[in-house]
Please model this.
Amino acid sequence: MGGGLKLMIAMGTVGLVAVACRQIVGIHDDGSPLVDASDGDLGGALAYGLALAPGSCRACIESRCCSEAQRCGSSKEPACSALATCELACNGDARCRSQCTVDHAIGPVSSLPALEACAATSCENECNLQCGGSLAYIPPNAADKCQQCATVNSCSEFQACSNDAACLALYRCRYACVTPDCATACDSANDAGIAAFNALASAGLSHCVQDCQLGDDFACIGHVTWPFAKASAIDITLHVRNYSPPYAPVSGANVKLCAASDTGCVTPLDANGVTDANGDAHLRLAKVVDLAPQVFFDVDSPTFTPHRFYPGFPFSAPNARLIQEVAILDKALYASVWTQAGFPAPIAGRGHIVIEAALFSQRSA
Model:
């Protein structure tokens, strides 16, 4: 094959790539957008990929994030195209980006985090992505105040997560969860992003809890759909620790898994759970019942008060680890803690019930 023909083929390939990327980000050859996506209405643009309005953000995505835009804008992931187009059309407006996440609730999407990370890393100024843009997961009515707080107090942590596709994948996966075991399954599937995600969460909880309404978004009330079980049997790990500082794990506690209908736990579903040195008890739910909170845990130890823990949600992840720890009291401290809480002194020979309600964020409600 002659050198001239090889050069023509190479040039032709480069030209096709350039045209393809322009079409994927929604650009005609004359520079005009395929559709006007400024109002979030994609119309028929999904077949062409991302429909970005003219401007510096579109030009940057075209030149620096072409492959990421191509994967997101492909016909295989129309949900990615819809959400990415909506977010990038916001020109960095925090409330607008948050509303996009609500309007296009798509859960984990394989190609979206890579595009978002590229935009944060390479097009932050052009797309006006303050602190990288990961504030898109905040409730819309709190987004502006949250962005102001994050910019002052924890911008570096938000930026680090925004630049990390693994952190964004974990963030988006957790955002789509309605049960704690789903969230821990997200951690296992996206472990490369845990360090950056934990740093972001720690910074947010330290400085911006109220401004960002962390754990206080109740828009899901009346709209929760329990997930179906992803396996016929589920392995469950329950962590047990001492209620009192230094909150040491409790070893040697007996843990039984009981059906919710078996209030006395006469016939345990699994009676073989014993906490190890790390305070973890491993149990198996051999028959999964969909769409109902179906079990409770009975925890007993010679040195601690008996404890029952009702998760209040159906298990769905094949390997469920409960981040919500079961805190149980040393019998010697029971009376003093009971009194400090403002309850009447415990009556000898009688049982007592303490009920605590907690938000999904694990803060008391």
